[in-house]
């Protein structure tokens, strides 16, 4: 393959914190929304490359539950951009045979966005390739609280014996139920934190951070992350073989 890596040395599931869109734009004297527009172009190229490499899943942190604190105008433009993305990328999702999922709370999202999410999920229902998962209005602490609440309701109603609660059962109540855990988390813009992203799921994920902002992150940067990942010794709490 073009990376010189065996397929079994690639991560199966990559999660990305796409940071730095606004900063990239401001450094160039542009409105912050221009950075988000350029970020969409990066999404397209990275999704296509991950699909070509036959990854199992790519999860992108598009909008966190904390992002609602941003100025109203920026929020309005972000939501329009997301809705536009859902509509325009359907043909690519079909062409690349991508499975499609969105994780996060639906409350707060407009009827138009919810309609387009459903439409995109419908068009990808029979696809069998890489899963593209978008984290929208997502916060990992909320996800864990929602899972705990659902389990508590099952116990209170008598549908679940509390002695049967284990990690596997808990995972099945997360937004990511049925998905594998990420092997690699990529973060752009140099920030050294995970920002309430997939806290349960990334317990043993490898972290890779670049100073580049998301709009300037390219396929070569993705390849660098994968080469670095392949060289790491993943022990999962044990010893090297």
Radius of gyration: 18 Å
Number of helices: 8
Largest sheet: 6 strands, parallel
Overall shape: it is globular
Order of strands in the sheet with the most strands? 3-4-2-1-5-6
User: What is the CATH topology?
Assistant: Undecaprenyl pyrophosphate synthetase
Structure description:
With 241 residues, this protein is of the alpha/beta class. It has one domain: Decaprenyl diphosphate synthase-like (Undecaprenyl pyrophosphate synthetase, 3-Layer(aba) Sandwich), CATH 3.40.1180. 41% of the residues lie in helices and 14% in strands. It has helices spanning 21-27, 32-52, 72-88, 90-95, 111-123, 140-156, 167-171, 219-230; strands at 13-17, 57-64, 99-103, 131-138, 184-187, 206-209. A 6-stranded parallel beta sheet has the order 3-4-2-1-5-6, with helices on both faces. Helix 5 (111-123) links the parallel strand 3 and strand 4. The radius of gyration is 18 Å and the shape is globular. The model has no long low-confidence stretch (mean pLDDT 96).
What is the compact description of this entry?
The chain has 241 residues and is of the alpha/beta class.
Spell out the key features of this protein.
241 residues; alpha/beta; Undecaprenyl pyrophosphate synthetase; 6-stranded parallel beta sheet; 8 helices; 14% strand
